[in-house]
Amino acid sequence: MKIVKPLNNSSLLCVDDDGQECVIMGRGIGFGRKPGEDIDPAIAEQTFRPALPGEGHQLANQIADLPLDIVAVAATIVELGASDPLQSSDQAAVQSHVLALADHLTFALERHRDGMELTYPLRWEVTQLYPRELALGHQALEQVEAATGVRLPDDEAVAIAMHFVNAQFSGGDYSATARMTEQINRVLQVVSSALDTEVDPESMDVARFVTHLRYLFVRIAEGRQVSGPADGISASIQQAAPRWYRVAEHVRTTLAVEGVTITDNEVAYLALHVARLATSPSCE
Q: CATH 1.10.1790.10: does it fit domain 174-278?
């Protein structure tokens, strides 16, 4: 592996033996290094590769201002959520998640040092809809404190939870994730009104329903909704559960106003999940 250029005392832009650019990080790894020098990749503590060939310098610019200890703690935090089936195991997606989280934590620590605290407007929605991710957010605050000695405000757990939700989308668009969160909350309001009961977001039945909605929105975002001939499926579900099919159609209409299109098959499957929720102990 050869050094292209040192970024700081802890990171280097390099080219590996296959001619592929990468950024390696390690304590003191960049100190006194010169372009063109050979370096053993085994001494790197973290290795990052650009998503596309030729983007090594963009990746280097992204990493140059990130402290090594924060990148390391971000990698540990992302690993905590690796068992969640909604989280991508794709290496490029994991790397993107680590760097986005490291960037967030770096600025959160700077804000805290300067006495600035942010209030996140989606705290209620995140608490109700993403309890697993919020739990990871609180674990993350403990990891940050262990690594830096700084205890960030509890509201930062909300922001970190949103990073985990955001990582479930291939595009990684944070604004789209916030929009999805608001839309899921609206769907719950539609269903709650149709059931004439206040659904309990902390119940397992509602958690399962929300998980289905999250998978649905991921499929919508990635253009892989369940599609194909739906006449037989829709007809049988309309006949077996007409009330719940109407609720699912109401959900489709509500989302269509916001430009979200749901296929007939997805409406049919949503009706089944509404029926399951409606007949659960949580809604009796």
A: yes
CA-based torsion, 192, 196, 201, 206: positive or negative: negative
- CA angle, 31 then 37 then 91, to 5°: 80
pLDDT digits (tens, 9 = 90+) for 6-56: 999 999 999 999 999 999 999 999 999 999 999 999 999 999 998 777 788
Amino acid at 96: S
Structural element, H or E, at residue 6: strand 2-8
Residue 105 Cα distances to 96, 165, 190, angstroms = 14, 16, 36
Contact 103, 160 (CB under 8 A): no
Element (H, E) at 24: strand 21-25
Q: How many CB atoms lie within 10 A of CB 36?
A: 9
Architecture of domain 68-169: Orthogonal Bundle (1.10)
CA dist 4 and 14 (Å) reads: 5
Query: Does the structure show a pLDDT above 80 at 84?
Result: no
Amino acid identity of residue 69, one-letter, is: D
pTM above the 0.70 mark?
A: no
Residue holding tokens 């990871």?
Answer: 136
